[in-house]
Amino acid sequence: MRFYAAAAVAVLAAGLAGAGAAKERPVLGWAYASKTIAWFDPATLRPLPGAKLPLGAGVCAASVSPAGTRAALASCSGQITFADVRRMRRVGEMFVTSALGNASAVAWLRADRLLATGSRDGDAAVAVIDPVRRRIVKVVPLAGPVSGETVLPGGRVAFLVGNSGSFGPARVAVADADGTVRVAVAARISTGSIVRSDGDAPSMTRRGVGFAVDAAGGRAFVVSPDSTVAEVDLRTLEVAYHGPVRAPAKYVDGPARQAAWLGDGMLAVTGADYATSGTGSGAKVTMTPYGLRLVDTATWTSRTLDPNATSFQRGAGVLLVETPAPGSTRTVTAWSDDGAVRYTLRIPPQAYLNVYGGHGYVCQSTGLMRVVSTATGATVAAPRGRSCVRLLDGSASP
User: Fold this and answer.
1) Which of 319, 310, 88 is nearest to 208 (CA)?
2) What Rg value do the Cα atoms of the chain yield, rounded?
3) 298 or 122, which is more confident?
4) Has residue 201 got a pLDDT over 90?
5) CB atoms closer than 10 angstroms to residue 12
C-alpha cells in the first residue's frame, strides 16, 4: 500500500443501484472529467448522492485522518488542501513548495501530525506537518530521492532512499510521526542516476532497484538488477542478503525494477534494461524485458512467469501484465499468485487499464468504458457517460 494510504479503506456499506446488485463499500475519489472529489461506488464508478468538492489542481497523493472525517489532498504543484470528507468542504490550504517542491506522498499518522515527502531542486526531505494549524513544524533532509512510501503499523512509514547524481548504496528509511528517521544501508546494492550533457542532448545512466514492504511482517525488500535481495528488518534495521552477491555490472543506460509483496512469503519482481546507441537525433533506445518473476522468500528461489513482462498492476489475487502493442488492441494477462494464468483481457487502442483492488477500469481519455472484476476478468459494469476516477485509499465514511 502506498504512503498516501494511511489505512485500509473502512467505510460504511451502501446499496448500489440496480436490482440484485452486490453491496460495495464507497470509496473516496477524484473524477478526471469533472475534477471533483466525491464518494463513488467502486463497482460502477457511480458518484454517490451528496456534496462534491471541486479540486481543479488534481490529486497526486492523499491521506485520511485517523478519525476518518478529514483528508489531506496533495496536488502536483506543492499545495495541500484539507477537506471535511463527510460534508465535502474545504477547511484549509497550505503550500509546501519551499520545503518539498511538491508533496509526492502524504500520511496522516496522528490527529496532530501529517508526514509528507517530496523533492525540491533534487534535494529530498520529509516534512512533519501540523494539520490543525496547517504549518510545517520540522523538515528532515534526505540525501537522495524517495520512493515506495508505505505505512506501517504503529504510525510509522517506510520508504526507499536512492541517489541522484551518483551511484551508491540503497537505503531503507523508517520515519515516525514526530519526524525521527532511522536508516538501514543496503551496502551491497547500488542504485542511483547520473545525467550527462555530452553532445547536443543530455543522457542519463541509472541503476533502478525494486522495493517492496511486508508491512504486517515488518520487513522491506530491495531487489537489485542482478537479483540480489536485501531483506531489512524494519524494527532493528538489520540487513540480510539473499541471492547472487557480486559487484554491479556495467550498465550502458541502466536497469529499472518493480517489486511487490504478495503475502505468504512471495515477492513479485519485474522491470526492464535500457540501452542507447548513437547520439543526438540519431540516438536509438532499446529495451530488454526483465520478465515477471516470483521469488519465494522461504527458499530464496525464483521462477519466471512471463519473460516479456516489464511492469504489472496488482489486482485481487492476480498480477496484471500488459503486452505492449502501441496503436493496436493490447492483451492483459492475469497471473495468479501461484503462477497460473487466470484469464486474459483485450484493451482497445487508445484505452488504458486502471486497477483498484477487486476492480479494473478500462478508460479512454477521461471516460469510463467498462469495469471488470480483477479476480475473474468478467465485465461487471459498462456504464455510458461516466468519468474515470482516481480512487483514493482512506479510513472514512460519507
Assistant:
1) 310
2) 21
3) 298
4) no
5) 10
